[in-house]
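PT: before anyone asks, these are the final sequences, not the draft ones from last week. 537 residues across everything. Please model them as a single complex and drop the result in this thread when it's through.
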Amino acid sequence: MLKRCHPIARLGCFLPVLLLGMLLCHPVLSPAALGAGLLCQGMALGAKSCRTTLGFGLPVILLMGGLNLFFNSRGNTVFLYLNDLPLTLESLLYGLSAGCMAVGMAVWLMLLANSLGRSGLLDLFGGLLPGITMILTMLLRFLPLYRRRMKSRMDTQRTLGRTTQEGSLTRRFQDGGRLLSSQFSASLEQSITTADSMTARGYGLGKRPSRWPMEKFRCRNGVALAVTLLLTAGTAAAWLAGGLDCRFFPRLRVGSGLAYWGGMVCYLLLLLFPAAWWAGEKMGRHFAVRRWKDSWKEENAHDLLSL
Amino acid sequence: MNRFRKLLPWLLLGAMTGCILVLTFLPGLTQYYTLLLFGGAGCCVAALLLAFENHRPSARDLMPVMVLVATASLGRVVFSFVPQVQPVTVLVLCAGISLGPVQGFVTGALSAVVSNLMLGMGPWTLWQMLGWGVIGLLGGGMKRFRLRQKWLVCVLALLSGFLYGWIVDIWTVAFYGEGVSLELFLTVYGAATLFNLIHGVGNLIFALLLYPTVCRKLDRVVVKYGLDHR
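LR: through. Structure below.
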């Protein structure tokens, strides 16, 4: 989702929701966060992935609600006595909200991971942590190489009669150990050779960053970032003013007044922002393509007529 | 900017200490424990990664770490069918003992990230980074004090099973959503004792098998190519 934006803007879209969502356990806002997350997931990854999430999410929510209902007897509104055990509406609500919060945060974390991807992460941290980013970038290539080298080493050792596939268990174990040991020493030596050839090509000499930014930070990324920051600031201010506090016990009490409604609106807008942005981009691209097609038809109208 | 970069790890460590102090001494603020716990762990990991960067590592410093991370994470993936038994802890310990504390931390933290790319990312990744990183730091401390006897490393490997489990279980406590209290921690740690014991015994076996070989190879590279010249 939102793969064509700058990683900072993508992070700004999803991270505030994650942070605020972990703070707010609320009977309205937590389900709203889950719903908006599912909406984004449905738009970006398709309905099937949504169904999978619901398949594991709904049982978790119901389980947490049920556990709270039966093991937590706080709350004033009793709707049933089960062998002198009061089942209260508040504990059910609390359990369901906590379940929605947990599943919703899982969905948003998945959205963030999906949107950033490996390249986005490398791009984000490349400036701050060049050495670590270098290691990670090289690892992504090195892991398949390591497996391939292991395979060829196994083939070579088999010609010497050493194989992990046959023989007694001790023998197999010894041969496997020899294989791993030689692989490890060779990789260490080869890595030093790689390091020297990197230095020979100028790595670590100048101010060359070990990253290749895929996207530029464009004006609309700045606008999106500003909007999300503004909405986050609004929600955080409402939360600090106590408007988004929610007490489940002994009786459900949510805030009221300007802080409450302002915080609610800001948070809901923040939740819907990624989906709206994605839809806007999609629509913009759709109209751009149509305009381009129309202009092409106009330009070539008489050619088409003469055909 | 450069001075700020040098100061940043200390600032982050200060923020981590602040988080821990708030959690311990200000019970009024413990309702924000999820944020405080994650903030503290994030600050600690970021501080030590930045400390590694502030050494200005050359290509020769980076590459052995990369090989160790690759070996550890492939080892974890290969052993992922056995619960809690994997060679990562011992390899990270060896990295610390041979290469140094900060390198050990980076090896541990990156092994968690890279193996989770294959096994599944989540909020637990941060805690695994911290857990294995701290074990790498411990190994580095062994290097600093020249404690490299095999029996000592084996004991440390056994204990680091528990240490890793205790650090990662902070995430379990945060996930329960019941706040932080000594009783909750003791309950969770008590329930996890068997798993930690399996991890520790697995570490002990891996340490007996791997420690002499891996450390000999790493020391050879360190001496041959002068990696600890600083």
